[in-house]
Amino acid sequence: MTSEQQLTAIKGAKVLMVGAGGIGCELLKTLALSGFQDIHIIDMDTIEVSNLNRQFLFRKSHVGQSKAKVARDAVLRFRPHISITPYHANVKDPDFKVDFFKQFNVVLNGLDNLDARRHVNRLCLAADVPLIESGTTGFLGQVTVHIKGKTECYECQPKPVPKTYPVCTITSTPSKFIHCIVWAKDLLFAKLFGDKNQDNDLNVRSTDATSSSEHAEDVFERKKGEGIGLYGRRIYDHVFGYNIEVALSNEETWKNRNRPRPIYSRDVLPFKLIQQNGNVDKNLMADAPSPVSAMASLGLKSPQDIWNLKENSRIFFESLKLFLVKREKEIGNLTFDKDDQLAVEFVTAAANVRASSFGILLHSLFEAKGIAGNIVHAVATTNAIIAGLIVIEAVKVLQNDANSYRMTYCLEHPSKKMLLMPVEPFEPNKSCYVCSEMPLLLEVNTHHSKLRDIVEKIVKAKLGMSCPLVMHGSALLYEVGDDLDKDMVANYAANLDKVLSGLPSPVTGGTILTVEDLHQELSCNINIKHREEFDKEKEPNGMVLSGWTQSPAKEKDDNASINNGASASNASSHAFSLEVKEDSETAIVPVATGSVPTGKKRKMFDISEDSVPDLSSVPDEVRSKNKLEEIDDDDGDDVVLLDDGCSDGVKKKRLR
Ligand SMILES: Nc1ncnc2c1ncn2[C@@H]1O[C@H](COP(=O)(O)OP(=O)(O)OP(=O)(O)O)[C@@H](O)[C@H]1O
Ligand SMILES: [Zn+2]
């Protein structure tokens, strides 16, 4: 029941919702039904068919229209007298400056990506407006409250980085289906259909001393006049047969592993069958409607079926043929896309043939697509629960009821019949470069690295600044903006290509650089430390950024590389990463308030008796006792091992 006071606070409030997707639709409905009367919504997207199963304010007839506008219209139908202002725009647009944010009493995020979340966090800090942040991944979800100077900001805790795999696991010693998917998607698909000039480790194997990369490169080129059937067979025999034989020749590798089995096309499909495979005809196909599908062509209907080796091989040849015949023009420019049916068919088949060779369980196209596309299916109920919790926290914030603020986590497995875990918010992290102005430390070889490296790899990629300005003392080294004159633009462009020590105002060990983003009203200092040598494998950028990410527990923590934002840069170029899915509502781990890559399964355990039912009374214990365990299952799902990251040794003060 809403009290009189609460109703007054609700009625007088002006709120901004960012995101009108899965969480956003639920949130707008709940806000309207709770009595909110002045709601602004920003969403940059238009409605897609795939949104309709859970974004219930939208209908099929709305496909292609602005989410923000359609959501407004849908809610006005049952709450005609309230004011809803939609903006079909990117929240990062310069229109939404600090002054825009200042007009709101509270900002409510229903976003699906780190970049936008960080941007809103910074603007809320600059405008001193409370932010309620949220996320869901399948059955998991969380709502967190961020009040400037009182609680942690969204960026006080570093976010986990995507899981990466060593290159040799992918190229030589896969042991899980996910390894085969990464191989098929990032190596084979990229090699055959992607940019030919891109680095590709397909033939780089620690075990492979015998075949030169030139030899291997030639294999992927289609020879003049070579028939598609022959070409397909050559590729198949090379990657599933010859390459495996070469790998097998290194006995050391297989001492403690199961030896893979080379697979040659002749043993699976007679050449005649390869040539007759499918009903595709070059002339017919040229007029056929898109999208083309190898499954359709071969009469395989169910994406849930697990194909055998022969069926996978047929799909392999058929999808390769369809790419060459039907989508010839795209070859050289393709990157894997989970919504590209033919690409998914090719990757599923190639991954399954490889899995078969390595004795790994085969998977259906449906499962393979989920793994390759990093898909965790959204659960509408989770979004509804999270939206309800956002409104509960918003009402507390509007009443300034700081003692009652809770960060609430929606768990997958109830513990003691509890599905929701409330935790008191924490004080701001004193070493957070975003809200506590703590300087960062950058180790870099100032004679080798260029200003461009710092701008692109550190300021933009790591610090999330999109309109950066770099200063050394009062000397401006770089800035962007529409109002710059030609000379300045040329000057800054020239600076980008200079090594740090060769800049007009030389940057050397001991220099303090100031970097700013005027749109985000964020400024921070970076202490430069000159370092001669970097580990090419572990520090491929030739730079190491540290500062706010470091805490004693995290250094001890085996999983620091996952929780530690700084080490994201260290994700070696010689490792494959399963990208964080940025298009889900992304849940955050209860304990570290870091967004977790979707496609991850997490399991709660060891919630102690004294932490239930009132978990909020013992947040430190909760943080240390509730661990997220890696489930190293064989169904190919990628999993993150996440510990609390702030257990022993890290003192975090509860908000009082
Ligand atoms: N920078 C941004 N500015 C404005 N809106 C954004 C921005 N980034 C993301 N959004 C919006 O946040 C919403 C997130 O919703 P949701 O997670 O349900 O994603 P979706 O794109 O609707 O669904 P799916 O990814 O599953 O297809 C989307 O509607 C998206 O347009
Ligand atoms: Zn912070």
From TrEMBL:
Superkingdom of source: Eukaryota
Ubiquitin/SUMO-activating enzyme ubiquitin-like domain mapped to chain residues: 442-534
Positions of the UniProt region annotated as Disordered: 533-569, 599-640
GO cellular component labels: cytoplasm; SUMO activating enzyme complex
Biased amino acid composition, Acidic residues: 630-640
Pathway membership, UniProt: Protein modification; protein sumoylation
Catalytic residues identified in the record: C168
Zinc found in the keyword field: yes
Protein's name in the database: SUMO-activating enzyme subunit
Species whose genome carries this gene: Actinidia chinensis var. chinensis (Chinese soft-hair kiwi)
Upper taxonomic lineage: Eukaryota, Viridiplantae, Streptophyta, Embryophyta, Tracheophyta
